[in-house]
Amino acid sequence: MNLARLDLNLVVALRALLEERNVTRAGQRVGLSQPAMSAALARLRRHFDDDLLARVGGHYELTALGQVLLARTATAYEVMERLFASQAAFDPVSETREFKIVASDYAVAVFGAELARVVHEEAPGIRLRFTQTPTTVVEETATLLSTTDGLLMPHGVISDFPATDLYEDRWVFLVADDHPSVGDRLTREDLGRLPWVTYQRTYDAPAVRQLGMLGIEPRVEVSVDNFQLLPMLVERTQRITLIQARLARLLAPLAAVHVVEPPYEAVPLREALWWHPVHTHDAAHIWLRETTARVGRGMAGAPAAHAGF
Fold first, then answer.
1. Global pTM?
2. pLDDT of 115-133, one tens digit each?
3. For residue 262, how many C-alpha atoms fall within 13 Å in the half-sphere facing its CB?
4. pLDDT, tens digit (0-9, with 9 covering 90-100), for 20-50
5. Sequence-separated (6 or more) residues with CB below 8 Å from residue 54
6. Residue 301 burial by CB count (10 A; 0-12/13-18/19+): exposed, middle or buried?
7. Structure confidence at residue 72 (pLDDT)
8. Cβ distance 63 to 51 under 8 Å?
9. What DSSP letter does each residue of the chain carry, written as one string?
10. Cβ distance 111 to 296 under 8 Å?
């Protein structure tokens, strides 16, 4: 495909047509007349050799290819926006911009809150938008990073992209205060016999893969996509859960649970900010990376929770 022969303005028209499924509304959305948008649709149909929009009764529906292009066009549009928003210089005091960061609720609570405080003080015109880490992050890392400014994710889950190390954390277990058979310590046998609460795709985490290497197969009873719900799902039950020590300390007042150290040498958690190489030399993104790294260094002296909080 020779991009030099393509009119990239058609990406804007294509997205509007596929999302609106109406030539007139699509034209109004991007500031084109109805005849101009009809001409754009004709060019797109010739290029793809497909109708894209097919009339069904009194309205249009997407063809099979149109359905495929719907998500891809939105991604391409976001990449183009970020490409042409790149800057040679960046003054955080005077700039107005939004940075989109993908992160779990753990990362937002433990790190994102402090990052937001620093940004508020040093760059009043900068906005941060945190969005939940999708379950497809491992399979679609490149696509995800190309449409965002960064991903907060520990080492050991994804690779082959640039990253800035932020801080370290430890893994600990949570147990209900009134657990009938577990007090202040767990055995490896306990880990195999007791029911677990887990965070969505636990098998991606090095800490959980370590359990497999130790011959421990968690008996998952409840799975949830929010780390901060784990204490409530352990309280007044026989369940156990693996959780980050820094988050355990923050959640201590919320549930009748206590921390128990792992009955093995758990691998540490090393949190990092990952980004797409397209951002590497962008002045605004360099500022973001330097700021996150500085906030991470400031957390180095903050202790994580120990047994009993």
1. 0.74
2. 999 999 999 999 999 999 9
3. 19
4. 999 999 999 888 898 998 999 999 999 899 9
5. 60, 61, 62, 63
6. exposed
7. 83
8. yes
9. --GGGS-THHHHHHHHHHHH--HHHHHHHHT--HHHHHHHHHHHHHHHTS-SEEEETTEEEE-HHHHHHHHHHHHHHHHHHHHHT--S---TTT--EEEEEEE-HHHIIIIIHHHHHHHHHH-TTEEEEEEEPPTTTTTTHHHHHHTSSEEEEEBTTB-SS-EEEEEEE-EEEEEETT-SS-SS---HHHHHHSEEEEESSGGGSHHHHHHHHTT---EEEEEES-GGGHHHHHTTSS-EEEEEHHHHHHHGGGSSEEEE--SS-PPPEEEEEE--GGGTT-HHHHHHHHHHHHHHHHHTTSPPP-TT-
10. yes
Give the chain's mean pLDDT.
89
How many angstroms separate the CA atoms of 227 and 250, rounded?
12
Separation of CA 165 from chain center: 16
Contact 236, 256 (CB under 8 A): yes
Judge whether 177 and 257 are in contact, CB under 8 Å: yes
